[in-house]
Amino acid sequence: MYGPLRSPSRRTVLAGAGVAAAAVVLPPASTAAAAGAVADTSVQAHRWRTASIGGTGFVTGVLFHPRVKGLAYARTDIGGAYRWERTTSRWVPLLDHIGWDDWNLTGVEAMAVDAAHPDRLFLALGTYSQPSAGTGAVLRSEDRGATWARTDLNVRLGANEDGRGTGERLLVDPRDSDTLWLGTRHDGLLKSTDRGSTWAAADFPATPSASGQGITFLAAAERVLYAGWGDGGDAGLYQYTGGRWQTVAGQPSGDAAKIPVRSAYDIGARDLYVTYANTPGPNNQTTGSVHRLNTVTGAWTEVTPVPPGGTTADGSADTFGYGGVAVDARRPGTVVVSTNNRWADVDTLFRSTDRGRTWVSLKDSAVLDVTETPYLNWGEKAKFGWWIQTVGIDPYDSRHIVYGTGATLFSTCDLVHWAPQIRGLEESAVTFLLSPPTGKAHLLSGLGDIGVMYHDSLTSSPSLGMATNPVFGSATGLAQAALKPSYTVRTGWSSGKNGASSTDGGRTWTPFAAQPEIASAAPGPIAVGADGATLLWSFVHWDGTKYPAHRSTDGGATWTEVSSFPKGGVPVADPADPTRFYVYDTDTGTVSASTDSGASFTARATGLPSGDSQFRIAAAPGRSGDLWLSAKSNGLYRSRDGGVTFTKVSSASASYALGFGKAAPGARYPALYLVGSTETITAVYRSDDEGARWTRINDDAHQWGWTGAAVTGDPRIHGRVYLSTNGRGIQYADPE
User: What is the pLDDT of residues 576-595, one digit of tens each?
Assistant: First the structure.
């Protein structure tokens, strides 16, 4: 994704609850309504859809099929893979079936197609290479990703780590369609001779390291194979000849050619183009180059369009690397390359029609149209791109070029006019969901990297784009005054202004007049009292360091430290009583409460599950002191007395996120929405009887990996649910 690495361990979550002296957790109550004495689970079909924003994440690879007109695939760092559907002009998600336990497989390290068998598709999956993330897997399909067969690997991949824009690391051998090669980061080269069903280590002369990049790409020049290697002194290009791999003679050296990033083969000119940078990217690249290898003569030629290291018009250092590269299958000698990490002068595509002798920057004549995805204006003006590490030229249309950025896929059909080609592809990591009881928008969302959105439509990108004044990177808090829902507040990462309020339900915003000094370094979650009179802001640095919370009673003009509030806790406002706030201290397993509008907090229930910052409290709308505590695999708890006591809800064996929606017809209590388990399956559930019985509302085809950040119902539509994902945007559903 565009921004810091993201995983389920870095989620900002909700919380809340409390009222008088300390109490221990009670055993389950005897009534089913209070405790859910029996795990009675049914299933109800729902129609699941993705709320439209338009990309919002790092598209790390795009691949046109060489033999099928209009067939293309895209991969992302945490949000799965997609197939382009030419008839509908939309991307079709291919990995929504990935379940909770396999969340690490939602990141796509590499993809490959078989030129001789157009319906075959192969994906190498694995988001992180840390031991806690689990090993990777290879999926193989005979029907363009409609169905899959899976082989688990004994190595780890890193689709959301540095180097995720290199590739492709997966290759179907052009000499034998049953043979596949897979380059790994830390475990050398793997080979399969049964079309990806089994894998074994293959000899490769370079030695992998625990911190290196290993094989950065695999490519075929007709029947000859090439591999890029990105580790230390062994870095460079390798060729498979005579049944063994060996370094290619005469290849470039130096910092600008330190790591081979990508390659493309021009069959008409018999040229292999290779892009290089001093780091794998997308971060930290400061220099790079482009070189051409004539595969017949073995001659190398440097064809770098613009050497990095100059200065821009305002005197800034123009540092960058080179990333994507593609050749025109219809016009030998025509090649396109991308810069990467060029922040001073903005990244561009360079195009050459004479084998790299001369180049034209396509950015210089580009006319951008982002009216379909207004958030790309970033509060100012749309950029041609950043983090461009993949580019593709349609083999059936030389003027149709696409390239991926940290937020979208841009496309042109005339080399001048560019617009996102992104319908259907949604990759945001969602941290907050809020469904107002009134107003035009049924949904507000807080997102990683792109702040807060006001969803005036669910089927088109929010017309106002990102929330501005100020623009945030990642949102860290989003709350609404329960008795005055037009008043909304948000917090997040920004430069100097980290909090803002709205008086029109999140449509427009005004920055807080002041903020605590720590807010810039550690903006955390925020709560607003039911009447909008009190703000309570908690502070947590991205590294986990916790700081004292602060309180404002004048809309953010002045702030006072609240020493009795547990540092780093997530504040929750009582939805019916403006004087009450709650917080769950996950370090000690204690719920504390305030009855003086957040000025002071007193411990109430103790002995609750502890040790995980993602435990959270939710307060039932319209009721004072009715609290629900999600403690992940420890289960679900409820308090009816403002957090003095909690009862374990036995119908739910695990609870990761809980939300509320409009009550069912004839019911008096809001519908409950749960991401958790009622028996052994982690899924999405609804209860219309206070948790006595649960109905599963997603299915095995709609799981989206990890979905534990937020879930909420719609207070105006019974059965409507909004669900966060960690890379597949916002999912929403209605009963069928």
Answer: 999 999 999 999 999 999 99
DSSP conformational letter for 44: -
Identify whether the C-beta of residue 447 lies closer than 8 Å to the C-beta of residue 461: no
234 is catalytic: no
Q: Report residue 320 as tokens.
A: 């960058």
Kindly state the helix (H) or strand (E) to which residue 591 belongs, with its residue range. Answer: strand 590-594
Residue closest to 213 by CA, chosen among 270, 148, 277, 164: 164
Asked whether the beta carbons of 189 and 182 are under 8 A apart, the reply is yes
Query: Of 102, 394, 449, 714, which residue is the catalytic one?
Result: 449
Paired sense of beta strands 390-393 and 367-368, if any: unpaired
Choosing from 77, 271, 347, 574, the catalytic residue is: 77
Domain annotation for the chain: domains and CATH numbers: 12-49+428-735 (2.130.10.10), 54-420 (2.130.10.10)
Q: Which of 426, 404, 428 is nearest to 61 (CA)?
A: 404
What is the distance between the alpha carbons of residues 43 and 46, in angstroms, rounded to a whole number? Answer: 9
C-beta separation of 708 from 8 below 8 A:
yes
CB neighbour class for 249 (10 Å; exposed up to 12, middle 13-18, buried from 19):
exposed
- Give me the residues paired with residue 595 across strands: none
The distance of Cα 342 from the centroid of its chain, to the nearest Å, equals 22
Is 449 catalytic? The answer is yes
Strand order in the sheet with 616-619: 616-619, 627-630, 636-639, 647-649
Amino acid at residue number 257: A
Instruction: State pLDDT tens for residues 634-678.
Output: 999 999 999 999 999 999 999 999 999 999 999 999 999 999 999
Across the strands, what pairs with 262?
167, 275
For 10, how many CA atoms within 13 A lie in the half-sphere containing its CB?
A: 15
Return the SS3 of 452: strand
